[in-house]
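Phosphonatase-like hydrolase
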Amino acid sequence: MKNIKLVVLDMAGTTVDEDNVVYKTVQKVINDKGFNVSLDEVLAHGAGKEKHQAITDVLKACTDATDIDTIADEAFANFKPTLKFTYMQLKVKTFPGVKEMMENLRNNGVYVVLNTGYDRKTASSLLLKLGWETGRDIDGLVTADDVSNGRPQPDMIYKAMNICGITEPQEVLKAGDSTIDIEEGKNANCGLTIGVLTGAQNETQLKTATPDYILPSLATLNEVLKA
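Structure:
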């Protein structure tokens, strides 16, 4: 097994169970503009991406809209206030066994950094609801606000490496619930890429990105690293 020193974990659907509320909100703000896209379509074309990009890509793939840039701008302007209202009423939790897995990694000298296509304000609100703190529960948080290029470009992984003083991408594992997470890890030349089945995409979809492993959840990640 590769010598992994840093594990970079996606948030929603991977470490954070928020019942796809973000993608349901993406669906809502698009359909509020007069469309009828399904949640499956949103997940297929928008999962893991910075949310303005997700809205744009869903519009391109699933509608006959002609002025996509304007519609995407208008939908995205509605996205943050709609999500904020939804989050106020939302109960956020992690998946069973994931917190214990993260603690085990950190106790064994492996850094754990969360990365996400969310903006920093949204990501921070999720951490607050979970009661997680950087330095105590995780070693870092990298959001779409922190880099020039979002997924599938490797910028967020490089930022996580910089936070933890890791210079070799082969010492990094990237895990997520969408193909774009896997593509991000491969573009960064990570030593391992892991797909998980707790979130946006199913096994057939994840296999198209050829991850090294597909797991039922992150709870069994330590078993992979020990193999």
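The chain has a mean pLDDT of 93.
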